[in-house]
Amino acid sequence: MISSSEYGSHSWELLVTVDHQHEEVQKEFLLRVTGDLHIGGVMLKLVEQIKIPQDWSDYALWWEQKKCWLLKTHWTLDKCGVQADAKLFFTTQHKMLRLRLPNMKTVRLKVSFSSMVFKAVTDICKILNIRRSEELSLLKQSEGTLKKKKKKDKNSKEPVTEDILNLCNSPVSSGLSGSPGLYSKTMTPVYDPISGTPASSTITWFSDSPLTEQNCSILAFSHPNCSPETLAEMYQPRTLADKAKLNAGKQPLWLQPNVKSAAPDCESIILMVNNDQHCSFLLQYDAVRINQIYEQARWAILLEEIDCTEEEMLIFAALQAQYHVSKLSLSSEAQDFTCESEVDEVEAALSNLEVTLECGNTSNILEDITDIPKLADNLRLVRPRKLSLKAIKPYWFVFKDTSVSYFKNKESAQGEPIEKLNLKGCEVVPDVNVAAKKFGIKLLIPVADGMNEVYLRCDNENQYARWMAACVLASKGKTMADSSYHPEVHKILSFLKMKNWTMSPQAVSDPESIDMKPECFVSLRYTKKYKSKQLAARILEAHQNVSQMTLVEAKLRFIQAWQSLPEFGLSYYIVRFKGSKKDDVLGVSYNRLIRIDIATGDPITTWRFSNMKQWNVNWEIRQVAIEFDQNVSIAFTCLSADCKIIHEYIGGYIFLSTRSKDQNETLDEDLFHKLTGGQE
User: Fold this and answer.
1) Domains in the chain and their CATH numbers?
2) Which of 53, 167, 547, 659 has the fewest beta carbons under 10 Å from its own?
3) Is it the case that residue 481 has pLDDT exceeding 80?
């Protein structure tokens, strides 16, 4: 029975469960509180009632139903909305987390579970010696996305998860702040003579990282390739719908209010480079970051999460083989290195891979600004026709600004063109077979009723590189006067050079003389298509063009080739557009949205973020609505995942596009949450 005085009072009982290690002490405590009691007062009452002498400074109240921490200790229970039916847990904010990296290496470290995921990723990157933390996010993978079939679940094993790297003694993990000036421009990297990676300089920058006390190469080196049997057990998407289901199983946790909401049971979470397009800033200083991006690219190729041709697959295999062979040879010759051989390999690799902004003499800068370059040449135009052969005709083409015009011949170029194609917002797909001397450019140009498909055929590699680079820039709304034109031409030529190989007498005649398993370097489809010796011979053919590369250059070329693939950076989701009676696939990239026919895989329409005026989400009906220039509006509901994932991707990509290349740039976390938040 309750006395009349108690019945008339405003107090009530609140049940709190305490997370402690003392078995002899009870874990559930019943507190009598009032609505005007602040959170700090609740914790003080609780500690007095527990009567265990220990440091409670890292403890806080976790509200299970709301999935949130009650960290504002001056707020009252009424202001927080806590009532008698609330389930509160008094637990530590810093907990152990198992994290699987893209190279399938699992690390164990202490993370603040009360921090926003955006802030927690920054702290994790400090521990792992990875800069540009905004490029990464925690990603929760649902059960079954890594397994091929349910009947194989009992026997299947995930690669390299039993060897866990323990980083639990990190000062950052313990809640201490990292050392200032991590991104100083004045620091000069020192490169390891064996690996060619700048591990030493990275350790110097992150001197408070636990990796300084261990071998940094654990995360900076790639592990041996998994066996074909292990690869066969892993899930490999076959269709666009499969890729959409795979993306639905990968839940980005950018906007989780705290890490505990993302990982309530301290389960494994994958740390992945979610935003592929922006993973190229200052790679020359980041040994760990280079390796993690390389590993993510390698697994995407091996599991066929991104499509590539057989020729391209052999290039990727050759680059992996070069890394494998170089690593073995460098390890065997490590004792013969002298101080003179400590060459800055990364800088050398980048100087070969990239063309600086100062492509010409300084006297030509004004001319480049005032005069927009143009291309004019003889090309062949191909227009696909239904129920008939393709029509291939030669024309005189002129490329200027972001448009391509073609004429009957060079003499008629002063008059009106036969047709003028505006390439802004179009899709540009390479149609190349170097062995067959085929250099084509596939253009999917947006029109009122879908996409107009046009092919341009070039005569040689140099012509193809110039026109392809111009088309790629024009699709982004840029002209050939942009500083990125010449680097794009150079990148295309270097990729074509890797594809151009012929078996020479100096090539290894016996594939078995090299200690490698060719099945480990290609996807399962090609291990079924070719025998082991045939596959090894073809990989060694392609290997000739990359055999002189260093370890770091092989990785950087692999990343560069991965970024050159048409499907690079695309995440797929099954959606239903407003007014449509069938499902479509929506491809979300760093700069555009693509509507794709789910049956044929052909692009229907492309919308660029640069033309976007605004976007919003109706959280009641789970519909995303976007407005573009020229009174273009679209709306769709997401069927394969939550609509907030697409909303977060759009906001996240726009946030990343606002970054500068300043190493000392401070991230605007408020802007990030403003662009990606707002749901419900």
Assistant:
1) 11-92 (3.10.20.90), 373-480 (2.30.29.30), 570-676 (2.30.29.30)
2) 53
3) yes
